Amino acid sequence: MRTIFALAALLITLTVPSWADFTFAGDAASCTKHDTYADFKLSNAAFQVHVIKPDIIRFRFNAGGKFSEAPSYAVRENKAAPVQFSLSEKPEYYELATGTLTVRITKKPCRVAIHTAGGTLLCEDEKSFGMAFDGGEVRCFKRLFPDERFFGLGEKTGTLDRRGSQYTMWNSDFPSYTKKQDPLYSSIPFFIAERDHQAYGIFMDNTYKSYFNMGASNNRLYWFGAEKGDLDYYFIWGPSMKKVISSYTELTGRMELPPLWALGYQQSRWSYFPEEKVREVARSFRKHKIPCDVIYLDIDYMDGYRVFTWDKTRFPDPAGMIADLGRDGFKIVTIIDPGVKADSNYFAAQEGLARDLFAKYPDGVPFQGQVWPSWAYFPDFTKKETRAWWGEKLSALMAQGIAGFWNDMNEPALWGGNFIDIVRFDDNGHGADHRKAHNVYGLEMAHATFDALNKYSDKRPFILTRAGFSGTQRYAAMWTGDNVASEDHLKLACFMPLSMGISGLPFVGSDVGGFDGCPSPSLYIRWMQLGAFTPFFRGHSCTGMPDKEPWALGETARDLTRDIITLRYRLLPFLYSEFSRASKTGIPLMRPMFLNFQHDDECYKPEAQEQFMVGDSFLVAPVLSEHETAKKLYLPAGKWLDWWKGTICEGKQWITSDAPLHRVPLYLREGAVVPLGEPMQFTGEKVSRELEFKVFPGGESSWELYEDDGVTRRYKDGIFSTTAIKINGKGTLTISRPVSAYKSPVAFYAFTLCGMKKPRSVSCGAAVLSPADSPQGLKAAKEGYFYDTEGAALTVRIATSRVGAASLAIQVK
């Protein structure tokens, strides 16, 4: 017995030193109000509360008493006028009020509680812990409510609800990752909390390795923190999730409108070479009449993996090849890795060393790590001179006709792991080691690439990146990395883009068909049917794998892939308009059900996360198994139109939809408007003279078509057009063109109103339209209407010249 007590005493003694540096923020001794923030003196830390907007509050803690002066990589500069707020002192607490939120800061000990202006508690520190510092580590402990759910955190595996799990933010290269792998390639330290159908968001602006424990293994608290740096986080009030996402992307920036061709199908492989193989792939797409806009060149196009070079044996005339493919509608996107081969005879290595552009050890010696070119230097993208130089090098490839760049291995990845922590970076003039720079390396590489494309071309940039941080959406699209041809990864290809979208990254997708492994034809088809509705749509394959182009998996896969890609191209006017909305609001076009139906608890169920909305009214229910021929799906309240059958279903129920291999279940919500363009082999193949609008009337709704040239940046100068379409639910559809600075080539609109009875008359403005006896007759007549008795659909065709700034009414009686 004495031995047991002695061992216990020894264990207690041994545990004391591990807590020696663990301190809490302490008591609030005083407070000073400034124009935009309140400054608190705590017994163990400095503390500031910044009012960014009435519904966005920033909290900053620093145990050393001095906040970092380095600019944020994620948050855009706030140029708005100061927000009015009040600060009052009570015996036990301070109270800061903005008119929307009330922040109560207790004095002994300092704890933060955030309420609505009406007094509803939204979020509060865990009363016993609050803010803590363990050596250099910073943590924030929050109360965990029993019914609280968490979403976001970017590129994470698993279902969308993060409750009960812990996650790490540390950009990591894990090829063929498992369905529970964490961390992965990008780090987005932002999440959305939902309780009682009200939502808030928290964004921790700290680039060091960080952790988010969302109630893992406990029911008392959730916490987030980082290994070093300030505890610096933003509280973002909704109460709608859409408002939280919009506010978060207002802070961190929004996607720019991509070129239209980047919304088409893209084909990749590690690797297509030599030149004749690239030409053969292009010919095959056109031969099989499968639409495609982009072919990628992976690492084997380079001379010994030296970036900015070509293997002259494999590609003797890059510019000629690119020009030839361009005439057949193909854009070429090349991979660019950050590692610069440490070769004394190589121009990029020579220039980078001479101009001090590489990351280096504290003694000034440039760091070398092993990657594809063997030993390599790594550009310091946190240095503005490096970013400018990188752009100069890319410009030579752009001059040869390269349309975009694919940034890979930019976690940064090395054989054997990470950089040594002591490696130094410029950090925009403030100096930092690898621990701070690691998570933003991919972000700043994308930044350099984006600047180059904007400086050296008048075309819109297209960049694809594997690694990133909050704010990456300003520069690049992102995909979910080196996945596997399996049903687990088919499901992840649905979940992960949804999570990334609500985390501020709207232009996302997966390697369709799986990067590693060999999909069966049915698995490949199901993945294509999912990919056709993800914002970024690219097929890709690992070296050593059998061919995975659409025609390579048999006639059935070829034909069904052709069908779904053709539908993708027909939907481009719809998708492009939704991209435009995402670029303005930050709200993703690919949305989990609960984002549109926040008050419907069924939409939070794991089964409902296997379907999604595109925009407000287009429901996609992909089959996420290669063997199933039916899909259980949920329809929220209201009426829903089966896209394929034309039948109408009542909502607020789970249904089972037939889903044979050739069909992905699609439904339109009452009030939906979906434009369809003409089938094309590539964007811009021909001038689209007619747009068909598939309309499901009911209630009052509106939708806006967006058009511009799809290529240049002239839309930023206002050279675009919008066409507003409104439905009043009483048989009247009104059209107007609020903005008409861009002259659209579309000459006719054909509105197909589904679920309609045969009309007695149809008029457009003051003109009474004439009926046609067939769709072909309607086209020949140019204007008029046709009623499809079997499909219960009315098609009304009018000349677009009728549409102006004033509303034009189409009335059905």
How is the topology of this model organized?
Blueprint: H1 2-15, E1 22-24, E2 28-33, E3 37-42, E4 46-53, E5 56-62, E6 86-89, E7 93-97, E8 101-106, E9 111-116, E10 121-124, E11 131-134, E12 137-143, E13 149-152, E14 166-169, E15 186-187, E16 190-195, E17 198-204, E18 210-213, E19 221-226, E20 231-237, H2 241-252, E21 266-267, H3 275-287, E22 294-297, H4 318-327, E23 331-336, E24 340-341, H5 347-354, E25 368-371, E26 374-377, H6 384-399, E27 404-407, E28 424-425, E29 432-433, H7 434-437, H8 441-456, E30 463-465, E31 468-469, E32 477-479, H9 487-502, E33 508-509, E34 511-512, H10 521-531, E35 538-539, H11 555-570, H12 572-585, E36 590-591, H13 593-596, E37 612-614, E38 618-620, E39 630-635, E40 639-642, E41 648-650, E42 653-658, E43 666-669, E44 673-676, E45 690-695, E46 701-707, E47 721-727, E48 732-740, E49 748-754, E50 762-764, E51 767-768, H14 775-781, E52 784-788, E53 793-799, E54 808-812
Parallel strand pairs: 15-31, 21-22, 21-35, 22-23, 23-27, 27-30, 30-32, 32-33, 34-35, 45-49
Antiparallel strand pairs: 1-11, 2-3, 3-4, 4-5, 5-20, 6-7, 7-8, 8-9, 9-10, 11-12, 12-19, 13-16, 14-18, 16-17, 17-20, 18-19, 24-26, 25-26, 28-29, 36-37, 37-38, 38-43, 39-42, 40-41, 40-43, 44-45, 46-47, 47-48, 48-54, 49-53, 50-51, 50-54, 52-53
- The side-by-side strand order for the widest beta sheet comes to 33-32-30-27-23-22-21-35-34
Arithmetic mean pLDDT = 95
- Low-confidence runs (pLDDT<50, min 5 residues)? 1-20
Largest sheet: 9 strands, parallel
Using the alpha-carbon principal axes, give the shape.
globular
Question: Can you count the helices?
Answer: 14
C-alpha end-to-end distance: 94 Å
Structural class: alpha+beta
Helix content: 10-25%
Strand content: 25-35%
Q: Radius of gyration, rounded?
A: 28 Å
Number of DSSP strand runs: 54
